[in-house]
Structures are given as C-alpha cells and as structure tokens.
Amino acid sequence: MNKRITAAVLAAALTLSVTAFTGCNDSKDNGSSKTASDTSASAGALEKTSFNLGHLNSTAHLLGFVAKEEGYFKEEGLDVTLTLFSSASELATGLETDKLDAAFIGSVPSITFQSKGHDLTIFGGAMTNGHGYVIKPQFVEGLDKWDVSILKGRNVASVKNSVQDAELQILLKDKGIEIGEGENKVNIVYFDSQKDAYNALQNDSIDAVSAYSPYTSLAESQGYKIVYRCSEEKLLENQPCCRQVASTAALSKYPNSYKAFERALIKAYKFTQENQEQTIKDVKKYIDIEENLIKTELYGGYGTSVPDPDKQGTVALKKSIVELGYTDDYDIDKLYNTDIYKNALESLIKESPDDKVYTELKKHFDEFE
Predict the structure, then answer these.
(1) Which residues contact 47 (CB under 8 A, 6 or more apart)?
(2) CA 130, CA 303: separation in Å to the nearest integer?
(3) Is 322 exposed, middle or buried (CB count within 10 Å of its CB: 0-12, 13-18, 19+)?
(4) pTM over 0.90, yes/no
(5) Are 78 and 47 in contact (CB under 8 A)?
(6) Contact, 114 vs 323, CB < 8 A?
(7) N or C: which end of the chain has fewer CB within 10 A?
C-alpha cells in the first residue's frame, strides 16, 4: 500500500470539456469473461442499477474515472454517471437531496458535516495525502530549503473546511505560529472552492495558496515553489484525504448495489497498480492536463488512491481536528461503515484467491480497520 500560472493558463489547463464528463466512452472490453449478471449475482440482487457519483476536479478521484472507463461499473451491473462539483458542500447537498448516490468528499469536510448532524456515512476511501501549499518564487529566493515557517507574514489563500486547511493549522500549531495579520503570523484568506483560492494567487495581495492534486504539480510546472507536500510532513503521514460518502439511509436501503459499486472501485484500484499508462489516459479524459503532470500526481509518491475505508486513520484525524477546535466531537462509529468494503473485497478474493493486489488490500484492511 503506497505511501505563475496566469489566470488564463490555469483556466485553460483545468477546463474540462463537456464531453469528458457527460459523454464518456462506453465501457471497454477489458478481457473479463464475467457478465453483469454473473458479478451482480455474487453481490446479491441489485436493489438499484442507476448510480450517480459526484467528484471534484482532482486526480485524487481516479478510481471512479478508471471504473467507468475500463467498464468495471458496467461489469458489476451498474450504470454510473459521473458529475463534477466544485466543493465538498455541494457534494454533501447532492447526497442529501438524492441527486447523488455516492461522492468523493474530503475527510475533514466529511467529519465536520457528520459532527453538525448531517446523516452521511463514510464507507470507503479514495485518496491518502496528495496536497500541500505553494508560494510565489520571490519569497524563497536565496533559501536552500524551507518549511511552513516561510508563510509567516504572508497572506495565504485556502478553503475553509478542507483537509489542506486543517493540515496547515496543525503544522502552524506545532511550530507555535499564530494565525492572523502580522509579521510573525500567517494570515489565512478563505475562498469557497479550491479553484477560486488558486486563481486568487494572481492577485498581488495573495502570496501562497493551498493545493490539492493536480494543482500542486501544475503550480510547480509553471514556476511556483512548493512550500510542502503533506506526504513529506511527519505530522501528516498517511493522512486520509478523500473518502467515499453516501447518505446513511441509502446505504441501508441498497446494500447490494453499494457492494457492487465497491467491487468496481477495488477492481479499478487493481488496474491502476498494473496499468499505469492506460490509467493516466483514463484520468486525462476527466482532468485535462498534461499526462506527465497526471503521472506525477498518481505515481510520484505524493499520494495514493486506495478504496480502503482506513477507519483508524480517519478517527485519528478526527481527534486531531477536534483538539484543534476545528469541529465538535461526536460518535463517528455510527457513521462509518467498513462492512461494504470488507464484503466486496472478500467476494473478489473468493473469485481470485491468488490475486496479489487483493491479498495486499485484505492485509492492510485487517491491520487498519
């Protein structure tokens, strides 16, 4: 299990064609002899087959992209539509209004939504690590290395209720650096979405910005400097980022359909581990940037996209942000379902007992459930 862009350039790099999201190619023949009826039988009769999956403009959500493009959803008897959203709050609203059946939502917003009474359950993973902060190059001239302290006296754009914002506050607290205006403080300026925060870097008043994938690699490719990547910070090692989230009621009402959904994502993970080149091409259909940047984000060692729910890691993160005062404490056990992933993985292992990828996933799950 592994561990200056101008506004015009950024807009061009991150603009996704309508067809990439609404007119994806039909599922491919990936060599499997199984039919939808065969695999759905292993999951039990599906209570519903039409699924809507919400995601952000991030390479972190590649499991959904690959499951769609390589035909794994179809193989599991599901007709899945992927829809792009701009923020975690929009995704949560989509789930609560039944416009979405599942969504990839950051771990921190997932936790804060739950703590505020939203009946949303985490049932799988999507990415670990994969984000950090970037800064304008003039602020690091003459320095050989730097850490979060370089942000002192700077205006930093971020997104409230996000993983990267919580991580920044954890690092600042560890260094004894206060948040606010002043030479020895870090002034955090909040925006509604990652894209808005990133575009604000074009303003003279903003010095640095939070970045989840692929913004970090895009920034570096255009001359910005990376203050830190969370995967390189001891305090943030193996930090669960995006989680698979659904309404609690839906998970209870359609258990077989969610098991089939999870089987498709697990198959997609296996594909990403064995077919890097095609995985990059699949992701590019949704995140239209240079393939070398996609490769850096997916396989550069800065983040891993794994379907495991990683309950231990998420619980530890909850504890950290509660201590930080980021959210109120609550009983997360009621809103965390690991059985769907467990049952889906076990069914795949039963079909392919010698598969090394599935076996490794099972070993990790048993250790970190």
Answers:
(1) 253, 254, 255, 256, 257
(2) 4
(3) middle
(4) no
(5) no
(6) no
(7) C
